[in-house]
Amino acid sequence: MENLPTPSPSTPKQSWIRFPSLASASSDIPAGLVVFLVALPLCLGVALASGAPLLSGIIAGVIGGVVVAFFSGSELSVSGPAAGLAVIVLKSIEELKSFPAFTLAVLLSGAMQLGIGFLRAGVIGDFIPNMVIKGMLAGIGIVIILKQIPHALGHDNDFVGDESFNQPDQLNTFNEVTQSMGSISFGAILISVVSLAILFGWDHPAIRRRRWASLVPAPLVCVVFGTLMNEAFKRVAPSWVLLATNHHLVELPVMGSLREVLGALQFPDFGRLVDPAVWKVALTLAIVGSLESLLSLEATDKLDPEKRISDPNAELRAQGFGNLVSGFVGGLPITSVIVRSSANVYSGAKSRLSSIIHGVLLFFAVLLIPMLLNRIPLACLAAILLSVGYKLSSWKIIRSVWKEGWFQFLPFVVTVAGIVLTDLLKGIVIGLCVSVFFVMRAYTRTAVTLVREGENFLVRLNKDLTFVNKQELKARLREIPDGARVIIDGVRAHYIDHDAVEVIKEFCEAAPRRGILAECHRIQGITPS
Fold this sequence. Notes:
Layout: H1 25-49, H2 54-71, E1 79-81, H3 86-96, H4 99-118, H5 130-153, H6 173-180, H7 186-201, H8 205-208, H9 211-215, H10 218-236, H11 258-264, H12 276-303, H13 312-328, E2 334-336, H14 338-346, H15 353-368, H16 370-373, H17 378-392, H18 395-402, H19 406-421, H20 424-445, E3 448-453, E4 456-461, H21 470-478, E5 485-489, H22 498-510, E6 517-521
Parallel strand pairs: 4-5, 5-6
Antiparallel strand pairs: 1-2, 3-4
Helix pairs in contact: 1-2, 1-14, 1-15, 2-13, 2-15, 3-12, 4-12, 4-13, 5-6, 5-12, 5-17, 5-19, 5-20, 7-10, 7-17, 10-17, 12-13, 12-14, 14-17, 19-20, 21-22
């Protein structure tokens, strides 16, 4: 008997728990530190805007960084409390009239997301056009820049991390910027300028080739310099000092011990388990949170220098586990967040270890050094976010999309405008609608061609036909004059739906009355003439 090759063993099924690799620790540790600095004010700001305890934002950040990272389908995505959910959270807490009831809804939303992940609904993210994802990144970049300008000028009325056009203080993104011009702080401006100089100077070849530059992240230097400068202002320029009373500094809740932190947790009110309002909030959080996570996952994959393809179903399961835990210990709902994820990528992260490190740092920051962190000016953190926003929406990116043609650029720019003028999810929906219009337009224009030679006509179906091609098919058939001879060739169409077949049947039935000799070749449902 002829020797048969030994079958290769099947690829082992990947474990749900994905442990981080230490091979890239030299890159992931500095990146995790940067993400921690970005996430710290965002966690507090989202909690403040949501009308929730500040500790709940930190809890969500810790769980998003540590728990979700162990299950995530992405190596670079970073999760935590999302600004896009702040309005939903605020209204939900008001509706339920109890934060423990709301945390029960968060827990239930996590269970629902687990179910969505097991049903493999993550494929929804694969249907988002590339131009919409690129528009999402550029739009978020522009929003970050516009939202951080007031903080860089020392006008800290709006919470850090707000992404909505209409703000809780009754202003919008644009008039918040103009209003900040009238109440600038010279101390904040100086700290912001120095921080930006450090951030962009760090990328200069003369500094980048130094070994120490790769070990010490520029954002950390910004925070140290910014904090020291503000302390120096107390001696040399007291009028320039940024004060906590004016909300110019980080405002971490001060907890004396782990026991005090545990005592401040608000556990779910399981007595409200049969309350329909709780289930309604849970369903809303599960749907919106899942969509935002899938969008952020797609966007993070676009930024990944290694171009890895993340598993969206694993990501949904990870978000489900995260929200189960967050809801159980009194945290806010968690999603994958593009601001933190993009900061992670641009800081040189290679694996999920950076996300875990950022979560661990958030936990110990609350326990060990809250008073020290509460001296950090928001102006230097605003500079870090300004640099991230610039990288997401640089002119080079916009110009590259423009070169791809008008049909690609228009969905991109509409998505950008939609995100800037509304919020992330609404902007994505607007961009999707425009993209679908152009896809259908291009699809219908190339589906049917008409060729004429004297009185002989050939109607060729170039691809599968559906109801969206009906208008073009009718238009081509209307061009055939009386007395002509026509062949309708469907050899290239593997599928022709009922609507298109009906149009062809009606034409063939009317053809003898117009003296037209019609033949059909390979048209499903029509007997060849």
